[in-house]
Amino acid sequence: MIGKGAEANIYLSGERVIKNRISKAYRVRELDEALRKTRTKREARLISLARRAGVATPFILDVNNPDTTVEMSFVEGLQIKKMLNKASKKDRLRICREIGRSTGRLHSNNIIHGDLTTSNTILAGDKIYFIDFGLGEVSEAVEDKGVDLLVFKKSLRSTHYKFEKECFKAFVEGYSREYKAYRDILERLRIIELRGRYFTERF
Known about the structure:
This protein is of the alpha+beta class. It is 50% helix and 19% strand. A five-stranded antiparallel beta sheet has the order 1-2-3-5-4, covered by helices on one side. Strands 6-8-9 form a three-stranded antiparallel beta sheet. The chain has a two-stranded antiparallel ribbon with strand order 7-10.
């Protein structure tokens, strides 16, 4: 086992990564089974759609829906979360700009990552791979795209707080090159952030 999340266990077998969605005892068995199958199928589809959109992702090798398991190629590289703070400013901005460009490609194709963080991006050679689309979906909604950006911004704030502003600025530079309606998403991001502050201050 190389990883354990709230929804799945991750195993490495040779050059294959196996993601197995685990059963949740607190859910009704039939509902739990249906959710795991739906999410397994959806994640595999999103990864394939993202790759077709020009975003580097693992290759899907097998989907076993009855076992709620996805097998994909192993991406050997550095998790952005672990290396971004140590990188030179030039490399740090380049990386965030590229993450922005890939996110722009996703959103141009109405693909929502759902958990867009530096934990779910890997630098392998000169490419940045996106992994873990388990919370993703296909959506045209401006709100959903704004939330994607908010999640990334929060990941910068929590793990890379010293570089948050410059990194997010670089991200937006890359994003705006690939997504024509980027101003609409940035405005929605601003509204979502204001909404969050209102509830925090009020309650």
